[in-house]
Design goal:
Layout lengths: L24 E7 L5 E7 L4 E7 L5 E8 L21
Antiparallel strand pairs: 1-2, 2-3, 3-4
């Protein structure tokens, strides 16, 4: 199952006004190539962060977990392309 695509067109869509909510769950999803995703999430205070990569078939390309201190460590991942990196 692929992550749901969400429109982020701020000119047409406006978030409803609501009371502030505090959550210990922080996450982001980026689609790099069609149906290829990087998913970053943090669960709870002093718990862990997970970074998962899914390929176009929905198979897990990588799945990393590490201990963190809340959402301040990782919540907004973005892919870095190193396929043309040349080390001399």
């Amino acid at each position: 199952m692929a992550p749901a695509a969400i429109s982020n067109n701020l000119r047409e869509n406006h978030a409803p006004t609501a009371p502030l909510a505090n959550s210990a769950f922080c996450s982001s999803v980026y689609e790099d190539a069609p149906d290829n995703y990087v998913i970053d999430y943090t669960l709870g205070d002093n718990a862990y962060t997970g970074i998962v990569g899914l390929d176009a078939s929905g198979d897990v390309a990588f799945n990393y977990h590490y201990v963190v201190d809340g959402c301040g460590t990782a919540w907004n991942a973005i892919q870095i392309h190193w396929e043309n990196l040349n080390l001399e």
